[in-house]
Amino acid sequence: MTTIRTTAQLLEAGMIEPEKIKKLEEVTKKFAVSLTPQLTELINLEVTGTSMAIRKQFLPDEQELIVNAAELKDPIGDTVFEGVKGVVHRYPDRCLLMPINTCPVYCRFCFRREKVGKNDSALTKEELERAFSYIESQPKIWEVILTGGDPLFLKPKKLNELLNRLDRIPHVEVVRIHTRVPAVDSARITEEMINALKINKALYVALHANHASEFTEPVRAACAKIVNAGIPMISQTVLLKGINDTPEALGDLMRTLVKNRIKPYYLHHADLAEGTSHFRTTLEEGRHLMKSLWGNYSGLCQPTYVLDIPGGHGKVPVSCHQYFSAEEVSGSAAESYRVEDYQGKFHSYKA
Ligand code: SF4
To answer: What is the pLDDT of residue 329?
Structure first.
């Protein structure tokens, strides 16, 4: 089995219907498609009547041609903060470094879909050196987040050179890698790749996963290799309509992550990327889902629900269901609050 990148290959694999090919060709002209053999196999195992979570995340759909007025080419405003090519410096103590523009798979809701997969480019040696010089010139940068594109799509030797270069910058104390590779192309997590990740500074791997059904045996084994090497794993999930927007689907995913020693980190409200409105829930729906996780699922299973404010203004937590409110208590100096428990019952709290 090879990687599927065209509508003709999708047709041949029986993944799209012939009458849809014209529309889907329009879609794939705008946004890249890629399905690793591992995902193709998983899609073939999906049973009608289930959420078809893998199929929906990776197969092109004609709804992607619908561009809603609020949608943007650069929904989180990366370009506004691009210090030098490949470096986005939005917050004072951290920056993104994007060494590569390609991914093993292309998620249909990707917030960088205008950029990734357009050409097989990675930063040149000179561009990378300019990126390192920029990071060196900014002593407040404490953490560098490798993203892209998928950094684990780089060859281990190249990745290791890059990580060692960051390791030598004294003020960079933490490196974080955002990736889908362990879940979509698990065979890339070889001993060589694990060794490439070993640097002196703290390094975290953030896995992008959106549904518990992504955790097949090879995926669990790839994650175990990373964790067993002493590399902590965290997760990022995008809240997706029809895929993980029920308390059961979201709770199941969070438990699956924790069982695999991956701490749930972010639940992203789906960004306003062009052609993705069919994936977006409302913020209110997201907040209700977060409320359903609280109390019913272990504290380890709680991610932070965040919205990336369009225009580059950064992430803000939006999960905070108001669990308490101040109470007026006449004649009392004590502070008094009305507190709601996870079952929706109210209690008084005085301090
Ligand atoms: S892996 Fe990340 S960067 Fe690549 S297509 Fe998916 S969301 Fe976009």
So the answer is: 59
Q: What does the pLDDT look like over 233-247, one tens digit per residue?
A: 999 999 999 999 999
What are the tokens at 295? 């109390």
Instruction: Confirm whether 110 is a catalytic residue.
Output: yes
For the chain, the domain total comes to: 3
Helix, strand, coil shares of the chain, percent, nearest 5, are 35, 25, 40
The Cα–Cα gap between 218 and 224 comes to 10
| Residues 126 and 258 occupy one common structural domain | yes
Same domain (yes/no): 99, 219: yes
Q: Mean per-residue pLDDT for 81-94?
A: 94
231 Cα to the center of ligand 1, angstroms: 22
Q: Which pLDDT belongs to residue 287?
A: 93
Domain that holds residue 288: 79-317
| Alpha carbon distance 62, 21 (integer Å) | 10
**Among 56, 61, 74, 90, which one carries the catalytic annotation?**
90
What integer pLDDT is reported at residue 116 of this predicted model? 93
Ligand 1 centroid to 106 CA: how many Å? 6
